[in-house]
Amino acid sequence: MKTTSTKSRNSVSADPACSHLRASIARDTYPDAFSEGATYPLAVVAELIGEAARAAILIASLDGRARTAGELALIANISAQSASGHLSKLVDGGLLTVQSSGGHRYYSMAGADVAHAIETLGSIATRPVSRLSRSGVAGAISRRMNAEIYVARSCYDHLAGRVAVEMTRALEESKVIRALGEREYELGRDGRSWFAELGVDVDRLRQTRRSFARRCLDWTERRPHLAGALGAAMLARIVALGWVARGRETRVVRITHLGARELHARFGVAVK
Predict the structure, then answer these.
(1) What are phi and psi of 17, to 5 degrees?
(2) Nearest to 109 by CA among 152, 40, 158, 42
């Protein structure tokens, strides 16, 4: 088979075998219709996330709530017409879902995997890369560690922030959970009984289709917190117990007086 190539001043000759490999990866790994035909579908998703208004919409959606286009337009500080276009792209790209109810369309995060990706990207975006960067936006963000959202917040359906990271560390140290590779947790020797005492049925959670216990990189602490079905069940349980309370229009999670006592007694976490 005869292969021809055109060289430009800055081009590098392409290996036909590599071209075939790239096409194979794009076809086999990313069969999604939205990115069909793209050489690097990752770039398509990156473009969706990288636009400022769409980023604002995605960050707002990390709390797991469904919102109307008008509400999201206010959050992103854009017109209703612009919001409609951005939301259409995010839905087509699989990052948001939309449901109609009572004459309104409600938009929400497409799933825990999308929320996990956004949270992880946040940990990269706020990481100071040099001394000079510390005087800029990244440095300002990294120094605001006493802000409420840095202490405790929701990350889709599980707890994030300093409190979540310290709780996860305590669970690992007490052998309740243990790392399984780089992305997952599994129950430790005392895990089943510990969660049963808290009121979480781990056997039922294992029957769900989602990841049982995921290591989610916290974007402010840059250390892992507990996510997946187990992380979601744990947040739901401590909300039910009155240890924490979720805000109405914010991702901030407020630690109650009871919660502060329990978190210190059970996990050694100090909450001021």
Answers:
(1) -65, -40
(2) 158
8 A C-beta contact, residue 185 and residue 179 = yes
Distance CA 92, CA 113 (A): 16
Specify whether the CB–CB gap between 231 and 217 falls below 8 A: no
In 10 A of CB 134, how many CB atoms?
13
Question: Which structural domains are found in the chain, ordered by start?
Answer: 44-110 (1.10.10.10), 115-129+137-267 (no CATH)
Q: What is the pLDDT of residues 61-115, one digit of tens each?
A: 887 888 899 989 988 899 989 999 999 999 999 999 999 888 889 999 888 888 8
d(CA 62, CA 246): 13
Residues 164 and 244: their CA atoms lie apart, in Å, by 12
Residues for the chain: how many in total? Answer: 272
| pTM (predicted TM-score) | 0.61
Query: Are the beta carbons of 85 and 70 closer than 8 angstroms?
Result: no
In this structure, the dihedral spanned by the alpha carbons of residues 254, 260, 264 and 265, taken in order and rounded to 10 degrees, is -130
Mode of pairing for the β-strands spanning 158-160 and 177-180: unpaired
Backbone angles phi, psi at 158, to 5 degrees: -130, 170
Mark residue 64 as left, alpha or beta (left: phi above 0; alpha: psi -120 to 50; beta: remaining): left
Per-residue pLDDT tens over the stretch 124-180: 765 554 444 444 544 454 444 447 888 999 888 899 999 999 999 999 999 999 999
How many Å apart are CA 2 and CA 260, to the nearest integer?
72
Give the CA angle between residues 217, 219, 222 to the nearest 5°. Answer: 60
Rounded Cα distance, 46 and 39, in Å: 13
